[in-house]
């Protein structure tokens, strides 16, 4: 049987207030409107997307309690070609590494 003590310790640390704070403190905190504008500009002008995907419009990010990765927002919807969903999700995930939103 594998020793899971390291995983258990990491999980406990991550879920403790101090562990979560460490994940969150390196992120810039901005308004949902600012975040939406940043993501939208990246989608519209970024090299990762072309064709119909550059026309995607994301909904306003929604605040929530921080999750296990220290993220406190999600984008619940976007309009545009459904084939772009995976690419849009990967861009949003990149922004989650660097940004959190102001708690309402």
Biggest β-sheet: strands ordered side by side in the sheet? 1-6
The gross shape turns out to be elongated
- What is the makeup of the main sheet? 2 strands, parallel
Overall mean confidence score, pLDDT: 82
Structural class: alpha+beta
Q: Helical content, roughly?
A: 40-55%
What gap, in angstroms, lies between the N and C termini?
A: 46 Å
Q: How large, in whole angstroms, is the Cα Rg?
A: 16 Å
Please, how many helices?
Answer: 4
Q: pLDDT below 50 for ≥5 consecutive residues: which ranges?
A: 1-16
By DSSP, the count of extended strands is: 6
Task: Give the SSE string.
Answer: HHEHEEEEHE
Proportion of beta-strand residues: 5-15%
Write up what this structure looks like.
This protein is an alpha+beta fold and 104 residues long. 46% of the residues lie in helices and 13% in strands. The protein contains 4 helices and 6 strands; from the N terminus they run H-H-E-H-E-E-E-E-H-E. The strands form 3 sheets. The protein has a two-stranded parallel ribbon. It has a two-stranded antiparallel ribbon with strand order 2-5. A two-stranded antiparallel ribbon has the order 3-4. The protein is elongated and about 35 Å long. The relative contact order is 0.20.
Quick overview:
This protein is α+β, with helices and mostly antiparallel strands and 104 residues long.
Task: Spell out the blueprint of helices and strands.
Layout lengths: L4 H11 L1 H9 L2 E3 L1 H14 L11 E2 L3 E2 L9 E2 L3 E2 L5 H14 E3 L3
Parallel strand pairs: 1-6
Antiparallel strand pairs: 2-5, 3-4
Helix pairs in contact: 1-2
